[in-house]
Amino acid sequence: MGTLFYGDAATPIGIEDRALAHLKVAIITKLRRGESFTLSWQHPDDQPRGRSTLWLHPNIPLRFVFEEPEPPDLSRTWIETLMRSANSTGGIQLVPEQLDTGPIATVDPLATEPGAENAAS
């Protein structure tokens, strides 16, 4: 479980390491541009029911702390989803990663071999 420290808030925000790594990319991208925005998430099951929102501003200190020493492989799709929400009026919505579980396209090996078009004749 990673931790997000924002400003002088007394309560750190616990976010799973993989989600925090993706969130970090989206947040840093916006802050580098000097853009302010909100970050919203639903409370996990072990916290009181509800949701929270932070106003993120480039001049307010921010620190990301990860439990795992090695960074995870990042999903371009998840980062793009977070960035699209960051650019909306609602700000970044921390949503779960959507894994592509659809079938993997296969290629007919005969169709890619030179001269395969004449093999059926």
TrEMBL record:
Pfam families referenced in this protein's UniProt entry, alphabetically: DUF7882 (PF25355)
Residue span, DUF7882 domain: 1-97
UniProt xrefs under InterPro entries: DUF7882
Name under which the protein is recorded: DUF7882 domain-containing protein
